Amino acid sequence: MAFGQMPFPVRQAIGEWAERTVIHYFSETGRYHALRYGERWSGKKRVETDAVNRPDLLLLSKEAVERLKQNGIDPLTLELKDLSDHDKRLVSIVDEATVALETKISFRYYQRGHVNFIVDEVRKKRYEVWLTRTRKVGCLVIWFTLDKAFIAPMNLILSEGKAEDRSYESYGRQARIKTTYNYPVEQAERFADVNGVRLNETLRPVLTRGQSGSISIIIEDDPGILKNVNLEAFERLTEQVKRHVS
Would strands 139-144 and 99-105 be described as parallel, antiparallel, or unpaired? Predict the structure, then answer.
């Protein structure tokens, strides 16, 4: 079964695995804090918050965290996803941030010519809303496979990625179409090697029984381990995407 055909909770769990892998890496290095900032999906019946427009993570240096604490704001104790874009605490945190990070994954092992950064039109529109509400921080996209990760500025993907209409849901003879912006990972920067993924062990499905007797599927997993991280490219791109909006 292709990744796009998997049930949504499974695809969401795999996406969150990539996010946790990034969080784990930066927590281990100790130089930055990677904080959950955006919300991947609001759902049809949920109230759509400001967080759905944001990239997944916000990266702050240890020095930035200390400056914020001196001003009475501790970003490590706040749920950024629950704060409005207009909350003064969040505005201060975002202004101090090094970069915002969007994490995505192609659920496969890397093979040249078969993996693209893919941003759909919904994510593009939400990203554009986020840009109007922030002043300094830029956004990088980290694209995972199960053994490699690549990095590129969001603006580069949207400006130079090939626009393509593709179907994503079918109802009888009709299919829903969305536009995506596709940018080959080979044209981007190598970010890291990904270790620790074991077939049938990492990202393992588990069936659970609810109180009503219903059966549901969850995904248990351990974060991947990033090795040979290209910090030179990461820091160069971080500087490149900084913005100067008054």
Answer: parallel
Q: For 198-222, what is the mean pLDDT? A: 66
How far are the Cα atoms of 71, 108, 137, 194, 229 from residue 158, in angstroms, in the given order? 37, 23, 17, 26, 25
Write the pLDDT tens digit of every residue in 23-33: 999 988 888 99
Claim: this prediction has a pTM higher than 0.90: no
* CATH fold label, 3-194+227-240: Trna Endonuclease; Chain: A, domain 1 (3.40.1350)
Pick from 155, 177, 156, 158: nearest CA to 166: 177
**DSSP-derived secondary structure letter, 64:** H
3-state SS, residue 54: coil
Burial of 196 from C-beta contacts in 10 A (0-12 / 13-18 / 19+):
middle
Across the beta sheet with 32-36, the strand order is 32-36, 57-61, 99-105, 139-144, 148-153, 189-195, 225-227
Q: Which residues pair with 226 in a beta bridge?
A: 194
